[in-house]
Amino acid sequence: MSLTPAGGLRLHTQRLPGRGDGPTVVFLHGLVMDNLSSFYCTLAGPVSRAGHPVLLYDQRGHGRSDRPPGGYDRDTAAADLAALLGSLGLDRRPVHLVGNSYGGVLALHTALVRPELVASLVLIDAQLTGDWVEDMTDTLSVAALGLEHRRLPEQLAALGRRKEARLTAGADALLNRTSLIEDIAAGAAFTSHDFARLRCPVLAVYGEHSELLAGARELAAGAPDCELCVLPGVGHTVLNEATEGLCAAVLERLGDRAGAVAR
Fold first, then answer.
1. Phi, psi at residue 90, to the nearest 5°?
2. For 9, 153, 223, 228, which has the most beta carbons within 10 A of its beta carbon?
3. Where are the alpha helices (DSSP H) in 88-131?
4. In the predicted model, what is the mean pLDDT of residues 215-244?
């Protein structure tokens, strides 16, 4: 693991080898309490062992990456990714983007604003349509107030729960000392016009009980090349509770795309 310069920031990165010179698979994690480790023991290892080179990184403000006070909007996230790929010499060919939850939002946005960077998308229970921007902003605002007034990191540290205290302190800093909430609130849900503009193939993997499934169905109906995979028995916890089915779907899709490139 290392800190890689990218657009004036240092982003915490982890690369795993593949076989040959196929496109790199880049994983984008979710918000606040999430970081690259959520993929490390779930999808990244199997994808690397299947022969695909892998890049994991902590997004701006998360994990061990730098946490500037601003720049948490989607355009800046796409610019961060482009700068990171350039810094690592991975910008010579498109990459596969795999995004979980809000990471899927950033992956899809990157495919819209920087299509030349993206070979394909895998979206894992990502928020796409409806009132999710307002709902997420409200949820994050409540969490921010709770962290600020309850002094939870200090309480956890006093109980000897150091890892939880560290994660909670990072969440407190991100929610209460950056523009993250305001930047997310300034965004908007995707539209059918956005879906129709996608130039790359998409695999959308959602739990059958996910409240976000309706948006995935709109994506599947509107995007030129989109496969919707619905995994039984889970909701918004596909990555951790349906890992085997998710991994199979992702590897099948990556294998199909690798074969298409080879042909």
1. -105, 15
2. 223
3. 102-113
4. 97
- The amino acid present at 171, given as its one-letter code, is A
- Exposure string of 74-102, with b = 16+ CB inside 10 Å and e = fewer, is beebbbbbbbbbeebebbeebbbbbbbbb
Joined tokens for residue 224: 């030129």
Q: What is the mean pLDDT of the chain?
A: 93
Which residues pair with residue 4 across a beta bridge? Answer: 11
| Interstrand relation of 202-207 and 25-28 (parallel, antiparallel or unpaired) | unpaired
Do 125 and 101 contact (CB within 8 A), yes or no?
A: yes
Span 27-76, pLDDT tens digits: 999 999 899 999 998 999 999 999 999 999 999 999 999 999 999 999 99
Answer whether 62's CB lies under 8 Å from 175's CB: no
Q: Are strands 9-16 and 2-6 parallel, antiparallel or unpaired?
A: antiparallel
Give the residue among 106, 104, 97 at the shortest CA–CA distance from 123: 104
> 97 pairs with which residues across the strands?
26, 121
pLDDT in tens, 172-182: 999 999 999 99
- The helix/strand/coil state of 138 is helix
Q: Which of 25, 88, 37, 90 is nearest to 62 (CA)?
A: 37
204 beta partners: 123, 228
- Per-residue pLDDT, 21: 83
Strands of 226-231's sheet, edge to edge?
2-6, 9-16, 54-57, 25-28, 95-100, 118-124, 202-207, 226-231
Amino acid (one-letter) located at 145: L
Task: Name the phi and psi angles at 97, rounded to 5.
Answer: -110, 130
